[in-house]
Amino acid sequence: MPNVPTLFTALSMGSLAMDPRVYGPQTNAVVLKYGDVVELTINNFSTLLHPFHRHGGTFQITEYGPAGSSTPAPESFQNITVQKSKGSPMRRDTISLTEFSYVKVVFQATAAVNFFHCHNSIHSAMGMDMVFIEGPDVLQKTLQIPNAMYEMCHKQGIPTIGNAAGNIGFDFTGLPNVPTIVKQTGDNQ
């Protein structure tokens, strides 16, 4: 988790806000230009349901079908066919990605910081999440954070200026380390 909330980094880093590195490795940051049209293909090669959610924005489902994988799906999932949206698909902020399937979603970047993640908490903790920093240059010109928000952060010791570590440029001194596997046991050594 970054020391500085991602929105504050986007607002305080000037032109560097367009560089995903300033948000730190923990955010899985994707920086988009204002107005960019983004298409994501999300694959599910497992037997688990993955409810993906986009905070602060919506997307449209343009296509879904069976996930292509070198591992064949169980027989009960092999009759899924590709479905393509016609016209103007409904907007939503959550999609439940079923077993052995994929979905294509489309959205247009606004001026915002939006979190996109799997709602299975353990999956989010394992990195199945990302932050879209949309039009940070536009955000810097248009968004005014209320003073009460700055005061709330300062009372909690949360910095509100700088990169993910609260520093200038690409100095990440003081940023917590990204979780790594220290020791693995079992058959897959």
Mind explaining what this structure looks like?
15% of the residues lie in helices and 29% in strands. The longest helix is centred in the C-terminal third of the chain and has 9 residues, at 147-155. It is an alpha+beta fold. The protein has helices spanning 6-12, 121-125, 136-142, 147-155, and strands at 29-32, 37-44, 50-54, 59-66, 83-84, 91-92, 94-97, 101-108, 112-118, 129-134. It contains four helices and ten strands, in the order αβββββββββαβαα.
Terminal residue distance: 29 Å
Shape: globular
Q: Work out the radius of gyration.
A: 19 Å
Number of distinct beta strands: 10
Count of helices? 4
The low-pLDDT segments are none
Secondary structure category: alpha+beta
Helical fraction equals 10-25%
Mean pLDDT: 87
Topology summary:
Blueprint (H helix, E strand, L loop, with lengths): L5 H7 L16 E4 L4 E8 L5 E5 L4 E8 L16 E2 L6 E2 L1 E4 L3 E8 L3 E7 L2 H5 L3 E6 L1 H7 L4 H9 L34
Parallel strand pairs: 1-10
Antiparallel strand pairs: 2-8, 3-7, 3-9, 4-5, 4-6, 4-8, 9-10
